[in-house]
Amino acid sequence: THPKVDKKRFQSDAVIALKDASGSFPLSQPIGVLKWRIVSSNEEDIPLTINCWPSATGNGTVDVNIEYELTNTKLELEGVVVSVPIPPGAQPTVSDVDGVYEVDRARSTLEWQIPTIDASNANGSLDFSVPGDDSGAFFPVMVSFVCKKPYFDIEVTSVTSADSQDVDFSHTVALIPEQYAVI
Questions:
Q1: What is the dihedral of CA 37, 41, 47, 49, to 10 degrees?
Q2: d(CA 153, CA 103)
Q3: Which of 110, 133, 136, 176 has the most beta carbons within 10 angstroms of its beta carbon?
Q4: Could you tell me if 82 and 49 are in contact, meaning their C-beta atoms sit under 8 angstroms apart?
Q5: Conformation bin of residue 33: beta by default, left when phi > 0, alpha when psi is -120 to 50
Q6: Over the chain, what HEC string results?
């Protein structure tokens, strides 16, 4: 919570209120009063799972299958990018893709782009082959996305002043992973 927020009241009543009722938050400018973060090694907490299966074929190529699954179908992920390292200078041959892809030669990555992942396309895959024999060369897989719904069902329903008057307000919800790596 913001330093001016009464943390005890927030914890006991789920109300964001000022510690000092005679003070105020800045007017007519955006301010973050509550940020939430989850750090977990429990895979059940991950809203989007990624599985990467590279397999050396024995003939100088590696076949790679990457799959995603939206495990929390109440969420709608936008601008999803799955970034897969590839050997420098390699040109992957993509045989199947849900979404689109591009090769970033400067970063030696294949960028798999899915505009939206929601309940209607909760699963998808990308299959490609690339010259080489090192199955470990395709990690870490990095994932980015934005979601405009909170991870848990919480909502700001009203804002009132210290003297209990309703206040006009707006709010922005953004679920953005700080770092999402498949290693």
A1: 140
A2: 37
A3: 110
A4: no
A5: alpha
A6: CCCCECHHHHHHHCCCCECCCCCCCCCCCCCCCCCCCCCCCCHHHCCEEEEEEEEECCCCEEEEEEEEEECCCCCCEEEEEEEEECCCCCCCEEEEECCEEEEECCCCEEEEEEEEECHHHCEEEEEEEEECCCHHHHCCEEEEEEECCCCCCCCCCCCECCCCCECCCCCCCCECCCCCEEC
Question: Count of CB atoms within 10 A of residue 2's CB?
Answer: 14
CB 77 within 8 A of CB 99: no
Q: How many residues does the chain have?
A: 183
Contact between 109 and 53 under an 8 Å Cβ cutoff? The reply is: no
Give the pLDDT means over successive 10-residue stretches in the chain (183 positions): 85 86 79 76 85 95 97 94 96 97 97 97 98 95 92 80 82 81 86
Contact 4, 18 (CB under 8 A): yes
pTM for this prediction: 0.81
CB 20 within 8 A of CB 4: yes
Please answer whether residues 119 and 61 qualify as being in contact, where contact means their C-beta atoms are separated by less than 8 angstroms.
Answer: no
